[in-house]
Amino acid sequence: xxxxxxxxxxxxxxxxxxxxxxxxxxxxxxxxxxxxxxxxxxxxxxxxxxxxxxxxxxxxxxxxxxxxxxxxxxxxxxxxxxxxxxxxxxxxxxxxxxxxxxxxxxxxxxxxxxxxxxxxxxxxxxxxxxxxxxxxxxxxxxxxxxxxxxxxxxxxxxxxxxxxxxxxxxxxxxxxxxxxxxxxxxxxxxxxxxxxxxxxxxxxxxxxxxxxxxxxxxxxxxxxxxxxxxxxxxxxxxxxxxxxxxxxxxxxxxxxxxxxxxxxxxxxxxxxxxxxxxxxxxxxxxxxxxxxxxxxxxxxxxxxxxxxxxxxxxxxxxxxxxxxxxxxxxxxxxxxxxxxxxxxxxxxxxxxxxxxxxxxxxxxxxxxxxxxxxxxxxxx
Length: 380
Description:
Shape: globular
CATH topology of the largest domain: Nucleotidyltransferase, domain 5
């Protein structure tokens, strides 16, 4: 029976397992980093003498180093949003092999072609040297997960990689995978805003309509409101605010002078200024405090609707409300503002894990399901 050579894959796996960079391995064996990079990319093979040296270093037989091990498999999780897309690859033992971040991947913001380009670059980079047929993927991506042209295009795109198995969904699924609750509310406060009522396998979304229609709860609306307040203070139509000086210090010019660049930068760029609202409010600025109150009130309204969907007041126990996303890291400020508008029995909590960990978890579950299905077919 012909055996498959998998030296590149194996070398990367065992090098990473020892915690060595390509440069460190090169120094260990007296070769160049460029040589190690070529070996791992499949562009070259070492001499037999060097292969033996590497096998000894990794405490392997030569066969184990060179040939494909059919028990090797990998799990890739992707969490995509309006600001960044995170890729995380682990092996069967749970060891982290690679973790990288790329730009945004929401097709509603950047278009489907640019989204696929981000995903292609990330997948190729994080899986470098590893056969795709050994990888099980779950991708939870903002702007996907619903029937439509974009989701169909994404499926055709992923088909070409030849993964062992893959599945895609909305980014909320990554967070849901990290929740241990059968009934809860999930809230994303990142560049955009989303709320979901989760009841077993059923989920219902509230808001998440994008920057044209959502009126609060996210980096974009906070940044936009802060910019607007600074512009109004400049022309005298609004109240004086610390935001004026904060924008000038960051930009090197007034918000008004920067107006064209705000438009050119778009949603993601505007969201980068959300932190100024928190900074100004922390210094006692009344205008910034109103901005935070407005955004928290909008979020609370959608969370209240989700709690009613779960009939929280009749549940007999407190409903967990789990927050994720960059803006939710300001939970010490936001939670009191949101909580005062909620009447149902609920507990507000911040998700400590990265959402991409939920995508990795779902990839592992998908692998288990596919493997079990294949074994059942073999029995039949």
